[in-house]
Amino acid sequence: QVQLAESGGGLVQAGGSLRLSCAASGRAVIGVAMGWFRQAPGKEREFVAALSPYRGTTYYTDSVKGRFTISRDNGRNTVYLQMNSLKPEETAVYYCAAKASSDGLTTPDYTYWGQGTQVTVSS
Hints:
Number of strands: 11
Low-confidence stretches: none
Radius of gyration: 13 Å
Largest sheet: 7 strands, mixed
Mean pLDDT: 97
């Protein structure tokens, strides 16, 4: 079992930055694939970023490349999503997810999910 707890969401103006945290318990984050997804009202949950286990290869959806960074702190057993130059259309609930497999990291086929944290970007 892996428990995930997101934090760091909030209200930010367009162009601003936020750093989301995902604290994990039950298993070391270095050994599982970690992903960030987001879901806006009335829309499907969409992939944002992912980190493969061990090697830590990163994956991003095209719209956030160059602005968002996913990273891992093994000592704190925490994964982060640094979000810069935020846009109003990126307002959503952001979810952290984990799974043992390194396959399909960009799809919502993850085993464990956090409760989500709200990110609101004002124009």
